[in-house]
Amino acid sequence: MLTMAQTVNDLHRITTSQLDTPPRLLLGPGPSNAHPRVLQAMSNRQVGHLDPAFIALMNEVQELLRYAWQTDNKLTIPVSGTGSAAMEAAVANSVEPGDTIVIGVNGYFGERLCDMAGRYGGNVVRLEKAWGDVFTIDELRSAVSQHRPAVLALVHAETSTGARQPLEGVSDLCREFDCLLLVDTVTSLGGVPLFVDAWGIDIAYSGSQKALSCPPGIAPLTFGPRAVDKLNNRASGVPNWYLDLTMVSKYWGSERTYHHTAPINMNYGLREALRLVAEEGLEARWARHRNSAEMLWDGLADIGLTCHVPLETRLPTLTTVRIPEGVDGKAVARTLLTDYNIEIAAGLGQLGGKVWRVGLMGFNSRPENVITLLGALERVLNG
Amino acid sequence: MLTMAQTVNDLHRITTSQLDTPPRLLLGPGPSNAHPRVLQAMSNRQVGHLDPAFIALMNEVQELLRYAWQTDNKLTIPVSGTGSAAMEAAVANSVEPGDTIVIGVNGYFGERLCDMAGRYGGNVVRLEKAWGDVFTIDELRSAVSQHRPAVLALVHAETSTGARQPLEGVSDLCREFDCLLLVDTVTSLGGVPLFVDAWGIDIAYSGSQKALSCPPGIAPLTFGPRAVDKLNNRASGVPNWYLDLTMVSKYWGSERTYHHTAPINMNYGLREALRLVAEEGLEARWARHRNSAEMLWDGLADIGLTCHVPLETRLPTLTTVRIPEGVDGKAVARTLLTDYNIEIAAGLGQLGGKVWRVGLMGFNSRPENVITLLGALERVLNG
Predict the structure, then answer these.
(1) Which CATH number fits domain B36-278: 3.40.640.10, 3.40.50.2300, 1.10.10.10, 3.30.43.10?
(2) pTM listed for this prediction
């Protein structure tokens, strides 16, 4: 009794084999390899998105996110998408049409913030620096005092450049001029010292697939009290339905009001990734990332390669390595992938053709991986 | 050498045990239980989102989606979010400020379409019917000829009511009045006869966690040539960054331009779910859903329960069952969950307190599950 029966067309009914992905070591800007315990957790049988068992899990995920971010923010949740969705949630909910937003643009993700803020009607002020440089507190003060923005947006860890933006004093500045501090922590959360409350960050977002070693598809977001106040006092509604925190927060809050179906198994994975963070402890985890990175930097120097970012603002999670004169950077990356199953990435934008990007994040931040990469890189460069 | 060192606060560093979810049989409106092969596929080791191995997988996912939807549409992709994200992608990319959109509202998801379309500046015309009813072609003709919309949006399978909207003749109507036909197929794709091309559907979206039996977190979307034309000729940009198909399509098209990091493991899962569809074949799969549903409907009648939706428009994937006079519907659902690990759902909106919603979708659409539910329901009602 099929209604409107047509003949089924088998044109696209392709035959495929069981999935068997190559054993890549993912040392690019992300995703990094997921921890085996995370993959295992993701394959747990499903429960409904309003099941008491899932609600208990939601509370655990939120608590563990607060630990990872060092915040008491009630509105601390995983967004049901990848890091870019959390970035857009941060912007869509904090920027109203006509709001001025000063954005630090010293890499690809600062650019992306400008694109998003413009779509939400923000009056975007671009504060520009060469890719790899960071902003001084004086530069930020000058911009904020001149433009009096509603939001100052900075990228704590620029995945495109490997630079760490110091945040000392920025919160005081934002309070002095009554603006919100919005920070991209995609490549810092779980790998680099980060204290959301102590540093006075009002809004932060991240990804799961970097230093948390969970696959992409779920993305942490936190809104502090000042940001929630602004959200609750918007003159206009949030133009984005899926990411509207006035509704999403009712599902993740005590009301548990249905908004959209949470990605159940991604939440299983994120819970396990955050358990691993809590078991290891943030201090030990940060030190591990630092140690692996220093081992990498020393090893790169030994084979005559130099880092693009000065030591004092260099991220341990993501290193940009200058491609030597006369070397075809893309060919080297391709050979690493095809001959050694190692993924590193090419530069973007201003750094296109000039650097490789090497990530040592989460589960992957281990000495054996550094040795493997250095050995392979040396062979390819000298090969 | 930790910069800006604070003392790490262990307040939120909770201790949790290894995840061990209860063995639920998910017979609500979704998520349904994922097929074991899908969960296994999701735990495959990761590759990068621009890895040749992943690009091959993307092509396979797209081809298999075309088979499941019976379409040749080039722009057929999985959105990196849950079904609601795909719904918003459908609306955000097809509705421009000032566009009239006629929306069939005969359930919860028609309401949601109205909410979304309003956010994107659409001039929303609500075509209303009681929840559980469907629209006749004459009613649709009357609305379209009166309002001359840019888009007509209908819900093929209303998850909140269990009604199947017949689509006979709707495409001809939309072509006569030069409007796009946008169809919600969240609860029909993979479970109910559906021919996107033969039926002239211009835009369709779905979820992964219903009749495809993949966990939520990735959501199919297809745009046909007329919809792509409208997209390419927009007067204004797409206001949503994450779901902007002018950019997303360049990642899923031959350019492979980076937009956002795809949810790698969710794509593994979707691929396996779609392989299962291709292996079984659509005709066999639709017949299986029909057979399980008829078994359920007969069994419900045997224990004196009636269905809310008339047989001719009743969905095989989702059945709304009237709660008998004097029975506490919520208490029954709670007992099914706590005593028998079976999830069914309460009614929403106009059907709140009046019906249970029972899903038989994908992997779960099997006679043994029907027997289990009927047996448990009978015991709880008579207990």
Answers:
(1) 3.40.640.10
(2) 0.97
